[in-house]
Amino acid sequence: MRVKSETILPYSLLAPTLLFIVLLIVVPIFQAFLLAFQTADGDFTSANFLKMVTDTNFADALKFTLLLMVFIVPAQVVLALVMALLIHTRFKGHTFFLYIYAIPLAISDLAAGIAWLSIFTERGFLNSILYQTGVIDRPFLFLSYQNLPAMFGTIVVAESWRATAIVMVILLAGLQVIPRDYFEAADVFGATTLKRIFFVVLPLLRPSLQNALIIRTIFAFQTFSVVLALAGRVIPVLAGESYEWYANSRNANVASAYGVLILTFTVAATFVYFRLLRTSAAEAGFD
């Protein structure tokens, strides 16, 4: 009886997680695929994808989504790595800074977008500070449709602030499991700080970098609330167009086609990361 209970115990502990994954991830993905390839009458068709790619906003949504990924993901990884390395030095007060850095994790996407909206509007905090200090003599229109680069930049800043913390936590966890013997050996051989980062930290941090890049890329393709709060539909994104087709056009089929496209991009990006940052079991365990 004891052997049987020990055999069942691991599966019983995994059961809630597996149930969560099946009900909230696998089943919705399966339903999205069905809707994307079905008509309103239930017949199978590819017309939904044709309607998606011929939509007037599709090209811009695809362009801006890819641009956001290109600008946000590298910037966040670099910034998160700097933050994680700084905290890993365990300087006096590093715990306090860790809590400060992690604050965005407790803020929802839309709330973060609204907070940054109050900063970048014509009469927002940033313009008020710049005007009062004499840097500008009139408000700068960060969120004007006539100044798309500035509007795009505000989205990059807001999204980078919002989601850098999760990347930092992943990288910091990876740094914690690197034996300090490696750092001591680097010091013995006279390695500079940059050499320690490039020849010790980054190679051993590769599994964590892989996970951070995959998670952040998935989130980048799903960026929506911050864009909606700051730019509306002036800067369309794929997730936003999916929402528009579902909520306003009442067309769940085309909305699902957008969802399938986003899923395809994320799977392709994940495959690329696995190929470029391939790690063996020995490397992951530092054996």
SSE arrangement:
Layout: H1 2-36, H2 47-53, H3 58-88, H4 94-101, H5 109-120, H6 125-132, H7 148-176, H8 180-188, H9 193-204, H10 206-221, H11 225-231, H12 238-248, H13 252-276, H14 281-285
Describe this protein's structure.
The chain has 287 residues and is mainly α. α3 runs antiparallel to α4, α7 runs antiparallel to α10 and α12 packs antiparallel against α13. The longest helix is centred in the first third of the chain and has 35 residues. The radius of gyration is 23 Å and the shape is globular. The model has no long low-confidence stretch (mean pLDDT 87).
Structural features:
287 residues, mainly alpha, MetI-like fold, 14 helices
Can I get a quick summary?
The protein is mainly α. It has helices at about 1-35, 45-55, 60-90, 95-100, 110-120, 125-130, 150-175, 180-190, 195-205, 205-220, 225-230, 240-250, 250-275, 280-285.
Label the structural class: mainly alpha
Strand content: under 5%
What is the gyration radius calculated from CA atoms?
Answer: 23 Å
Mean model confidence by pLDDT: 87
Just name the CATH architecture.
Answer: Orthogonal Bundle
Tell me the total number of β-strands: 0
What's the helical proportion of residues?
over 70%
CATH class, named Mainly Alpha
Strand/helix succession: HHHHHHHHHHHHHH
CATH T-level topology: MetI-like fold
The CATH superfamily appears as MetI-like
| Number of spatially distinct domains | 1
The major beta sheet can be summarized as:
none
Low-pLDDT windows of residues? none
The helix tally amounts to 14
